[in-house]
Amino acid sequence: MKISLSSRHLAAAVGVLLPLLAPQGADAQSKTTIRDRARQEAVREAVTDESRFSVLDGVVTDSLLRPLNSADVTVVGTGAKVVTSENGRFRMLQVPPGQYLLIVRRIGYAPTSGMIEVPARDTVRLSYVLERSSNMLDTMRIRGTRVTVRMREFDQRRRLGIGQFITQEEIERRGSLATSDFLRYMRGVQVSQVTTDFFAGTQVYSRREGAGMSDGVGAQCAMQVLLDGIILPKNFNLDLLPPPKQVAGIEVYSGAATIPPQFGGPDRRCGVVAVWTRDGYY
Residue 104: how many CB atoms within 10 A of its CB? Predict the structure, then answer.
């Protein structure tokens, strides 16, 4: 399966404007206008940008290294999504350089996530292993009311009064360009910009349990972030979360003692941030 992340009209523009780059003789050269030169420069820049793109080439298997077909591979926040073929492979073309979060999921298997760094003009080889899950089916959706089971459970936890919650209505009312901005209003939580030799981005820390304990990034303890119930990498960069217009709700548990059992894990001493998307794509 292949997908392109570049401008869909780039090839057409290059085809139209390339003749302008060809030598046309002294007479033609003398008649070149400023507009012609601007067009030529635009083509050169477009071709240069195109040459910087890279390729993601990956495979998804089960724990016995058997290829898994029909697994969804999503680049969070970009809308790019592919499905693995019969041999478990997937391929994404024309990927701009940068840092991305990939989520891999398939019915009958526990989803996984991973951060990737895409250099310019390269092919990035990826491999993901999915473990069998006791939950054989994806979340059921109730189309009549357009309320998913997971969001019903979100409301049930909110009514219990344990933890802090931001609903879709609040997200729309407040307005923001970044999902991480909503966490700045939470009690017992600190959102910070971090720049080190190993990490650059936005992180969320608990001011309660575990505060001041080193977690490899700084002298604070980063909270565990989940996206639609999927555990994201430790020390996750919040800048890679989906934008607010795609978020249905956020719940925050700033200390280990308040975390619901379904969000438990081997290392939750610094609390949990659970982000739910509106359509559950991730």
Answer: 23
